Amino acid sequence: MKILITGANGMVAKATAKYCESIGDEVVAATRQELDIADKDAVLDRLRRENFDAVINCAAFTDVDGSETNVEKCYAANSVGVENLALGAKEIDCAYVTISTDYVFDGANSGFYTQRDAPNPQSVYGQAKLDGEIRARNAYARSMIVRSGWIYGYGGTNFLSVMHNLLAEGKSIKAIFDSFGTPTFANDLAKRLRELAELDLPCIFHVTNAGEGASYAGFAEKVCELKGFDKNLLEYASADSLKRPAPRPKSSKLACLFSERLGLKPLPHWENALAEFLEGKRERG
């Protein structure tokens, strides 16, 4: 397949490009500087000039707290840009996969959120991502929406991606004990994104690693267990004590109703995926 991957400097985009290239795809990975998805004319022009079989949108404004004050910037990337790519994909009649978030849910459900649950985002970031979902499906019925969350991986700068480095340096970290999600290794997400591009079935998919999920504290404890770090470096804290600008769901664990029925195998258990990430095997190839 010839695939356009947007947001090429991002963690998920890099993992996706690497995986697609490894199976023989022709990959065009575009950074924001090379293709600003919020620029409709630029998007349509780029897609018209090249005959893509699929577009995988990994571009996003992921600063959850910053989105509360940078509303326009957040919506440009997470909503308007998602729609622009859908319009472009429709024009050239190709598969379209775009990534959304577990933050479209309010967190009141302590179990797993499935596609049967109604979104109710509490933050600007979550609202913009949900708006992007709606715009994409309205613009192009062939759109595939992938909700994921707690994503970590090589080259990532978020907390889950770097906590092992901080602990290795003997630095203490705050481990939130009352927020829960389903950790997702970017390399596993990347493979599923490619599978969905080939499946080309319009749907909302929930994509995470298998298992019952974890709290941030539970994730940190598993990192310590796997790497032999001192658990005394973990400072347990409540989510409210951090006083972050953006509200976050207390629990945003995801489960998919459709994947296995469509022949898509569950992703590896999150603990096994974490072990693989920490060993760094797939980073080296």
What can you tell me about this protein's structure?
This protein is α/β, with parallel strands linked by helices. It has one domain: 3-Layer(aba) Sandwich (Rossmann fold), CATH 3.40.50.720. Helices cover 37% and strands 18% of the residues. It has 8 helices and 14 strands. It has a 6-stranded parallel β-sheet with strand order 2-1-3-4-5-10, with helices on both faces. A two-stranded parallel sheet has the order 6-9. A two-stranded parallel sheet has the order 7-13. Strand 3, helix 3 (71-92) and strand 4 (95-101) form a beta-alpha-beta unit. Helix 3 runs parallel beside helix 4.
Offer a few descriptive terms:
Rossmann fold, 285 residues, single chain, two-stranded parallel sheet, alpha/beta, 14 strands, 8 helices
The CATH fourth-level homologous superfamily:
NAD(P)-binding Rossmann-like Domain
Summed up, the helix count is 8
What is the residue-mean pLDDT, rounded to a whole number? 96
Helix percentage range: 25-40%
Major β-sheet profile: 6 strands, parallel
Shape: globular
In whole angstroms, the N-to-C terminal distance is 21 Å
- The total of beta strands comes to 14
Helices and strands, in order, run as EHEHEHEHEEHEEEHEEEHEEH
Arrangement of strands in the largest sheet: 2-1-3-4-5-10
